[in-house]
Design goal:
Layout lengths: L1 H25 L13 H26 L1 H4 L2 H23 L4 H23 L1
Length: about 120
């Protein structure tokens, strides 16, 4: 079970590191319609959140290396992953679905977070 927990944590770390880097490099303008004027405040906020996303990847990677010594922090990481799925669910309830792919990702995030919490509880 320890190995499976580490695999799940490394998966979360990889997602955070890759996703955070992607958001920092692209900024907000890559996600907005072409020809739209620059949105400096939005771009600043998106890159700031990308930095948080990236840094949480380093935190989760550290936890994956040191699973045995981390204790209750692993529960919080599981909750963090569940909340990412809940954020997608809230977005879906406010503006509608972004598509089947994102609905599947939302479910995977919930299961991944629950799996991390369950495996830690079983250890």
């Amino acid at each position: 079970m320890l190995l499976l927990l580490r695999i799940l944590l490394w998966l979360v770390a990889a997602i955070c590191l890759i996703g955070g880097t992607n958001i920092i490099l692209k900024g907000a303008m890559d996600f907005l319609p072409k020809g739209m004027s620059k949105q400096q405040v939005l771009d600043n906020l998106v890159r700031f959140l990308g930095g948080i996303y990236l840094s949480s990847g380093f935190l989760v990677a550290y936890v994956a290396f040191n699973v045995v010594r981390m204790g209750d922090l692993i529960y919080f990481i599981g909750v963090m992953v569940i909340f990412s799925g809940l954020g997608r669910l809230y977005s879906r309830s406010k503006v509608g679905t972004a598509g089947k792919y994102f609905d599947i990702i939302m479910m995977v995030e919930g299961l991944l977070g629950a799996g991390i919490i369950a495996l830690k509880w079983l250890l």
